[in-house]
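Example record used in the benchmark description.
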Amino acid sequence: MRQSLICGALLLLMAVAIPARAEVKIAYVDIQRALNECNNGKRARSNIRVEAQRAQASLQREQAQVQGLKDELDKKGMLMPPDQRQNLEDELAKKLRTFQDDVKNERDELHRKDNEATAAIVRDIATVVQQLGERNGYTVVMEKGGLLWGLPSADITEQVIRSYDSMNVKPGSLAANPRWAGTAPPATAGRGAATAPAGQAQPSIEGGSLRKHSSISK
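Model output (structure tokens):
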């Protein structure tokens, strides 16, 4: 949060440093809202919800099997021959380990799908923000999470959502340039750093950093 505030302050100082004769236009975008309300975000969240329900149903069946074996062992274990009791204990331990592994695997898989969906849509949103910023002559477009306060009139989130939805594209398809994918080093890095083509403005919002603070499942 502190880093976001510092970045926001630096951007504002940069804007103030622009010569007085230049028009300064500053806007901000609520990335989490854009994720939640854009069509691709709604579909992705619905898909993840379905996956979560499927995983929960499967894990509940496994848990019931484990509980059934435990109940059988508690009720009848003392009356069983030692070898039969040992077999039941081994089966219970095996199913319990499998259940615990499956819980972790399902949780990790849902987290992975959430991250992938979020990253793809945030990259698209970042591209749309850049397009709107260039088209409308904005000096700086900031992320709302890094602001202490801003005029409601400077919020272009609704424009971003409408513009993105009107394109009707597959999530992630707008971010062909790797600098939006969060895989390239910052422009200030050394040799091998990705840079914008000559004459093209470097965007002030990058999908790689934004997706760390956003989630399609929020």
